[in-house]
Amino acid sequence: MIGTVERLQKDIAQLQTEILSVASEIQETSGSYITVLAETVAKQALLSTYQLCTRAFPSRFLALSVYERQQLQQDLRKLITERQRQMPEELIQAMQAASLELNGFQEELDTIIARELKSLGDAISERLHEVSVLPEATSSAAEEDAPGVHLRLSEIEFADRSVMGWRSQLRILSARLARLQRELVQKQEEQTVAAAEAAWRSTWSDESV
Predict the structure, then answer these.
(1) Dihedral pair phi/psi, residue 185, rounded to 5°
(2) At what angle do helices 2-51 and 66-97 cross, to 10 degrees?
(3) Is 93 a residue whose pLDDT tops 50?
(4) In this predicted structure, what is the pLDDT of residue 140?
């Protein structure tokens, strides 16, 4: 029984080492993924803004003076460029604050990214509202149906193969991490049972009561 406990201890130590290694890989891969994602988000934000001004509401855009159009474009370019620069750092900080819990990393990352995308889309839409390029949404319209820039992670990944590639690597690593963590929990439970059995035998007497 002592041998069983020692074997389980070795298994647990090995799993813990593997978990740390995979977690490190996830952090490195996440950094690359986020950098590429930020670049693609900036391109998609510009494209969405262009389509709103030239296809969805061309008459409203044409109603602006040349100076107003130039100022709007400069403001939007500055806003998107700043967000592209800030996004990787903000996402990495948020990820570091989040724990790599069982089956939770991918969901946590998606939530953080979705929040950043909504913030950027809202900021661009607000600027377009200020110059009346975007009409006011009706009170009955759902938020996602209201006129504006709506950036969605699934669409951004589909539009750029490099983003999708890094995402695929993250998904594989996250699944591996989840499997290792499940194995660790199982081994720890087995170790507890084995230790309890060993403790029982160490104090048990076969003498009749």
Answers:
(1) -60, -45
(2) 180
(3) yes
(4) 58
pTM of the model: 0.82
Separation CA 166–CA 200 (nearest Å): 51
Q: Considering the chain, what is the average pLDDT of its residues? A: 90
Q: What is the DSSP letter of 135?
A: P
For the chain, the structural domain boundaries read: 2-202
Give, as one character, the DSSP assignment of residue 132. Answer: T
Q: How far is CA 170 from CA 17, 68, 83, 153, in A?
A: 19, 43, 23, 15
Q: Does residue 101 register a pLDDT over 60?
A: no
Q: Which residue in 130, 120, 105, 103 sits closest to 40, CA to CA? A: 120
Distance CA 205, CA 209 (A): 10
Phi, psi of 205 (to 5 degrees): -115, 140
The CA distance from 82 to 87, in Å, is 8
**102 has pLDDT over 50:** no
* 146-157 pLDDT tens trace: 899 999 999 999
Mean pLDDT for the stretch of residues 57-75: 98
Amino acid present at 171: R
Distance between first and last Cα of the chain: 25
3-state secondary structure of 99: coil
